[in-house]
Structures are given as structure tokens and as C-alpha cells.
Amino acid sequence: MDFELSEDMQMLEQAAREFAQSELAPRAAISDANEEFVAEQIRLCAEQGFLGMAVPEEYGGSDLGALGSSLVLIEVNNACASTGTTVSVHNSLTCESLVRFGTDEQKQKYLPRLATGELLGAYALSEAGSGSDAGSLVCKAEQDGDDWILDGSKLWISHGDQADVVIVFARTDPDAGNKGVTAFIVETSWDGYKAGKKELKMGLRGSSTVELQLDGVRVPAENVLGEVGRGFPIALSLLDTGRIGIASQAIGIAEACLEASVKYAGEREQFGKPIAAFGAIQEKIAEMAMRVDAARLLTFRAAVLKDKDQPHGREASMAKLMASQTSNYCAKEAVQIHGGAGYTRDFPVERYFRDARVTEIYEGTTEIQRLVIARSYLRK
Prior knowledge:
Elements: H1 7-34, H2 39-47, H3 65-79, H4 81-101, H5 104-116, E1 121-124, E2 140-144, E3 147-158, E4 165-171, E5 181-187, E6 193-198, E7 209-220, E8 224-225, H6 231-267, E9 269-270, E10 273-274, H7 279-307, H8 313-338, H9 349-357, H10 366-378
Parallel strand pairs: 1-4
Antiparallel strand pairs: 2-3, 3-7, 4-5, 5-8, 6-7, 9-10
């Protein structure tokens, strides 16, 4: 498979980098330190069309495809991973779910406003007792005439307190297992929707993560996404797209670590010469660079397969696994190269180290990715 980027993709990548470094990077440390949601950064991303990357042009989106979106997300996350989280969830989970499973009416109603940033989208699958085991969710939806009434709570919901539209998964048949789950398009202005506790996190502090409380939220029948009882397959299929997004995020963080390390190694002197002259530092830089390139290639492969509408579940898991581990490796080595300075907030590698950690946890843990990959071979 040829991974040489087209001229258009190279131009997109360069434009995204220039925007991210000029507009997002200077704001990243402030949002992190204050634990404030990256509202201004999201507004700026909307102006660039980055909130419509998964939306077809007929609905006002930029329709960049998986590869184009990956290139943008790498650059956004290189500058500010908190912004990258929000942009990724909005595109790969909210917009993508509507594009793939929404009715014409649902698409007309929501996609144009999601593409421009008038609406911000979120995604609510996880619960206190159902993380990796998503099929065990207990949030329930009971039919009342033509409507559905949602009751329950969701946990670890990215920007659930900032979103306007949330894709919520709830159990419509308590006895049907995975076949008893349905997806709903929920507007956060509806009665009974409430964002609860905001998590105090290690990293991604500019991206809020909250508990959602659904207390008798009335959802009209026309806001069922897909078919009743077919929510679980929707969730699983969207995770493949989400994993490409998280892989892209991880690569962006890893590249930022590599760039910061190269810069610092060339400036910091010990024993009368830059530390870049020492073999131990060169070995770290070489290993970081190799792993970043490998993660990029795996991620681009998964993205290209998705754009060709070919199976890409295993490839997405490989990309997410490799990229997230690379991100954490590069963050650790970047702090080590910076020495004591890397342990302070005077240098961004301290933030990169904290931001990288979650990439091995959300959208399927490292352990889950290995299970997915192994089972894809063993079931043959």
C-alpha cells in the first residue's frame, strides 16, 4: 500500500500545522493550568472547518475522510491534546454516527450545525459498571407512547457539560443482552439531562470529563439512531473510527515530545558540549523517531482502509495500540532528556507526559486492543 501523501493532503497537513502552532499551542498551557474547557480553541477550530471533517459537503462539512482527519488531528494534538480530544470525539463519534446511521431527517437537522460548530457533539457509552464490557450497561430507556424515557447515568463523558447533542446508549430490553441496547440522539437542553461531577484528571485538563445524569429524559421516536435494539453494533463500529482518532492524538503528542527533545538536546550543555553529542541521548532520539514513524504508518494504513470502505477493525486496533504506547514511551524519554527541568511546568514535556497516559486507556485499553488483534487471527 502506497502511503505517499497527495499534494492536497500535504497542503492540508501544512495548513493544519501552521494553524495549530500559531493559535492552539500558545493557549495550551493556560487551559491546562486553569483546568478550563478549551472553548476558544474549539471556536477557532470550527472556523477552520475542523468540526466538519466527518461531515459530507452536502451538509456543510469539509468531508476530509479518515486520512485527512488523521493528519489534522495529529497537528492539533501536537499543539494541544485537550483541544484534540474534543475535536476527535465531536467528529469520529458524534458526526460519524449520524453520517453512517442517521436518517435523512436526522442528518438535515443536526449535521449542518455540527459542521459549523453551532452545535458541539459528545458520546455517552461508558457507565460505572461498564467500561471495557460495554454490553453490560444498565442505563434504561422505556417506551411511552411514541417517545422513549431515559433514566440512568453515564461516566467518563468527554465535554458532556459543554455539548449540545449527545449520542446516548441505553438498554431498551433488559433480557436481550447486547441485542437490547439502542442508540439515541439526545439534546442537552431537554428536561432531565444534567452534567454531574467533573473529574479532576491527571492530564487533558482543558477537556472536561463528567458524569451524566439522565432523569426521565423524554426522547422522541424520531431521535432513535438506527434501529431499536441495534445500538451495540453501532457502538462497536464507531469504536474503530474512534481508535484511529486516538491513534492520531497519540502520534501528535509523541511528535511534540520528539520535537521538544531535539530542541532541548541541542541547547542544553553538559561537560562543555550539547547533550545531543552524547550517544545515550542520540539513542533515545533515534528510538523515539522510529516508533513515531511506525505508529504513523499503522495509523495511515487503517485510515486508508476506512476511506476505501474496507474492513479495518484489526488495523485500527494495531494503530491505536502502537501509537498510544509510542506516545507514552516518547513522553517518558522526553522528560528524561530534559532531566530536572522536564519535571517542572517550565517545559511542555511535563504536560505531554500527563496527557499521553490516557491514550492507553480510553477508546479501548491496551489490553483490549491486544485481545481484538489476537482474536482476529485466532478465529480464522
